[in-house]
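Tutorial, part two.
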Amino acid sequence: MRRALVGCAVAQIVVVILQFYLATFGAFQMPRPTGSEAAAIGLHAANGLFVIPAVSLAATVVAALAKVPGRLIALCAAPLVLSAVQMLVVFPLAGLAGATTDDTPLASLFVYGLHAIVGLGQLWAVIVGYRAVRKHTRTPVDQPQPQTV
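Running the prediction step on this input gives:
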């Protein structure tokens, strides 16, 4: 289970870094897609909607099965929770601030700025989670785990 947990932690880092790459990949697409044209930013959206939550859910389940401390399980779940925040809080707030498919007023742009900050939170969580997983897997199985506050 420890090797699987390390693998899940690495996978979380990879998909979150990929998310940042795909954001710029789509942001710099020229000419800008219109109407029904395929947009490169769709890869960013698909990764954020499906891949990050799936990998995070898998990491959380593996962490729980490995009986790691609750803080470590929470770090594995954090990208999933933050993806939900993006979809259920940030984007609806931007809509309330006036964002539409045709217009993004200044107020909604400030709200969309939170999208990047939440993404940085995901990056922080997967890096801290990976470091905690590595530290946890280096301690012998029969030795009691140190409690951190």
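DSSP finds four helices and no strands in the chain. In part three we will examine how such features are distributed along the chain.
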